[in-house]
Amino acid sequence: MVTQLQSTTQTEIIYPDCDGKPMANNTEQFDWIVVIKQNLEWLFADDENVFVAGDLFWYPVEGKPKIVNAPDVMVVLGRPKGKRLSYKQWEEENISPQVVFQILSPSNSRDEMERKLIFYDRHGVEEYYIYNPDLNELRGWLRGEDGLDTIALMANWVSPRLDIRFDLSGDKLQIYRPDGEGFSTYLEIERRRSQAEEALQQEKRRSQLLAERLREMGINPDEL
């Protein structure tokens, strides 16, 4: 008698790395996402075990690709830097992002934001911040014993995990590093670098002129 063995093929689970939607719905939202992400990357540039990402799909549960979210910016302390198509938590020592940022746009509905809050609460986020640039309004949640609790006063609030301070005293949000330096755009940083370089060159030119005058007077500037 011949027994035919039936082969079983396990269906591969697909975890998409995009949904075809744009990263941001307008230039202001995009600019804020980039500023927060890049400045956090600079802040933790020397720590190889801090992963910062923007608009990256986060899958918290293995085998359930429909349980997914893509925070505007997320910070994972305890995971190495590096390229990822998505953040699959079970492949990351089951460490969930501790800090998440959302920049509001007019297309974000109340229902959508409530679903995001429930998702982040359920899957272990410790700090959640939502900024509305149109209203210059910042809301925050901090994990307590029973989940994410609303932070009552956000003015000058300091993130327990990131040690950054939020200042709402001006016409737009300003975020400060632990050393007191404010978050800046790439353009602002490049402008300051250019100004510093120009000041250095001017100082060199002044030193050269002074040395030439001293030599004309018979004085060797190298002996001073």
Commentary on this structure:
The chain contains 3 helices and 10 strands. The protein is elongated, with a radius of gyration of 25 Å. The chain is 27% helix and 19% strand. The strands form 3 sheets. Strands 1-3-5-6-7-8 form a 6-stranded mixed β-sheet, sandwiched between helices. Strands 2-4 form a two-stranded parallel ribbon. Strands 9-10 form a two-stranded antiparallel ribbon. With 224 residues, the chain is of the alpha+beta class. The model is unreliable at 1-9 (pLDDT under 50). The termini are far apart.
- Quick one: overall form? elongated
User: What's the helix-strand series?
Assistant: HEEEEEHEEEEEH
Largest sheet features: 6 strands, mixed
Q: Treating each run of at least 4 consecutive H or I residues as one helix, how many helices?
A: 3
Q: Which structural class fits the helix and strand makeup?
A: alpha+beta
Number of strands: 10
Q: For the largest beta sheet, what order do the strands appear in spatially?
A: 1-3-5-6-7-8
What share of the residues lie within helices? 25-40%
Uncertain segments: 1-9
Q: Mean pLDDT, rounded to whole units?
A: 89
Strand percent estimate = 15-25%
Radius of gyration: 25 Å
> What distance separates the N and C termini?
106 Å
This entry's quaternary arrangement is single chain
